[in-house]
Design goal:
The protein has helices at 23-30, 65-69, 83-98, 102-112, 118-126, 139-144, 158-165, 181-192, 204-210, and strands at residues 114-116, 132-135, 151-152, 173-176, 198-201. With 216 residues, the protein is of the alpha/beta class. The chain folds into two domains: 23-93, no CATH class; 102-210, Oxidized Rhodanese, domain 1. The termini are far apart. Strands 1-5-4-2-3 form a five-stranded parallel beta sheet.
C-alpha cells in the first residue's frame, strides 16, 4: 500500500491486518481529498502536497506554496481544485471590463444609436416630417428653455414612462439634453427597449440655441 501524500511505497501488512480504510481516510475520500470521483480534483503527486501532514513534520509547519503547485519533476500538482480560482479570476476580469467612466459610456452609446445634427433635426421639423423631439433634461432645465413641441421625460424616468408616453416604437424619436451626453445614453436605452428609430441630437439644446434656432 502507499501512504497518503508520501510518494513512498510501503510493504503490505499481513493479510487482514491494517488493510481496512480508516474513518479519517474514508471521510477525506468522500470530499475528494484522497481521490475518488470528485470531478474538481485529481490525485496529489508529491510529498507535502497532501492535505494530511507528512510524517515527522511539525504541526506548526505548513507545506510551502511550491509543494502545493508543483509535483514530481516540476509538473503542476493536479490534485488542487482549480475551478474556484478560475471563477474568481474571471469575475475580476469582468469587473475590470464593467468599470467605465461616464465619458466611455457616452462614447459607447453614441456608437449604438444614430446621431443627428441640429440642422438635420430643424429641417425635418420644418418639412413636416413625423418626428418626436424628446427632451430628457430635468424639469427646471425645461422651464428655462425648451424646443417647441418637444416632449419632456427626465432621463431618470425614461424606462418607467416610455411605454405610456412613447407608444409607437416605429416612430422617429430624436432625443436631446443640454449637450448630448445624457441623450446619447437615453437613445441607446430606447434602442434596447425596441425603439429602432431612436436617435441622438448631437450637441443638445446648447448647439440648437447657438445656431439661433427658436426655443420657448
Amino acid at each position: 500500500m502507499r501512504k497518503a501524500g508520501s510518494g513512498v511505497a510501503l510493504a503490505p501488512l499481513a493479510s487482514g491486518v491494517g488493510n481496512e480504510e480508516s474513518p479519517e481516510d474514508a471521510s477525506l475520500r468522500g470530499v475528494g481529498k484522497l481521490g475518488g470521483d470528485d470531478p474538481l480534483t485529481e490525485p496529489y503527486s508529491t510529498p507535502g502536497a497532501s492535505p494530511l501532514r507528512p510524517e515527522g513534520e511539525s504541526p506548526s509547519k505548513k507545506p510551502s506554496h511550491a509543494n502545493h503547485t508543483k509535483g514530481a519533476g516540476g509538473e503542476p500538482n493536479s490534485r488542487l481544485p482549480r475551478f474556484p480560482y478560475m471563477i474568481h479570476a474571471i469575475n475580476l476580469m469582468k469587473g475590470a471590463e464593467m468599470a467605465k467612466t461616464f465619458e466611455e459610456m457616452v462614447a459607447e452609446a453614441r456608437r449604438a444609436a444614430d446621431q443627428r445634427s441640429v440642422e438635420e433635426v430643424r429641417e425635418a421639423m420644418k418639412s413636416g416630417e413625423q418626428i418626436t423631439i424628446l427632451d430628457v433634461r430635468e424639469p427646471a432645465e425645461w422651464e428655462d428653455a425648451h424646443i417647441t413641441e418637444a416632449k419632456l421625460i427626465p432621463r431618470g424616468l425614461l424606462e418607467y414612462m416610455a411605454a405610456d408616453e412613447l407608444p409607437d416604437k416605429e416612430a422617429l424619436i430624436v432625443v436631446h439634453c443640454a449637450t448630448g451626453g445624457r441623450s446619447a445614453l437615453a437613445a441607446k436605452t430606447l434602442k434596447e427597449m425596441g425603439y429602432e428609430n431612436a436617435a441622438n441630437m448631437d450637441g443638445g439644446i446648447t448647439a440648437w440655441r447657438e445656431r439661433g434656432y427658436e426655443v420657448e
